[in-house]
Design goal:
Length: 132
């Protein structure tokens, strides 16, 4: 591990503010994923959203191993619906519902969860108690 991983999603450059629109809820297939970016290239904030039924889970699309996206494009994302996400660089595995490391080069680290809220069939960035 590099030791330079951000500890909170808000510490990642270009982190969107609470209330920022992500997508319509039906843009995220049940058992599938959706990707969004905020901010400008070359280092936008990359958001990864997965869904199980009416539950949506957001993560920074950033592997804790090398700090690169788990996948650059949605079609490249390796997932086991409802169970885990796998980085397509060195195949570290992360829990679908909380982003913790399940195996591989991510021991002691994990994905950074991003709070999400559903507002009238729109998915927006949620607020957290430690957000200022
Ligand atoms: S960059 Fe993801 S496992 Fe190495």
């Amino acid at each position: 591990m590099s030791g330079t991983n951000p500890r909170l999603w808000q510490d990642v450059p270009c982190a969107p503010p609470a209330g920022e629109f992500v997508c319509q809820t039906d843009a995220v297939p049940d058992g599938g994923a959706f990707m969004a970016t905020f901010g400008d290239m070359p280092k936008p904030f990359r958001l990864l959203v997965v869904r199980s039924g009416s539950s949506y889970f957001g993560y920074v699309n950033r592997c804790s191993h090398f700090g690169v996206p788990l996948a650059q494009k949605i079609g490249q994302l390796i997932l086991d619906p409802g169970k885990e996400l796998t980085c397509n660089v060195h195949y570290s595995r992360f829990d679908w519902r909380d982003g913790r490391c399940l195996g591989g080069e991510c021991a002691g680290e994990g994905l950074l969860p991003v709070p999400l809220e559903v507002v009238e069939q729109r998915l927006v960035i949620g607020s957290t108690n430690d957000e200022h």
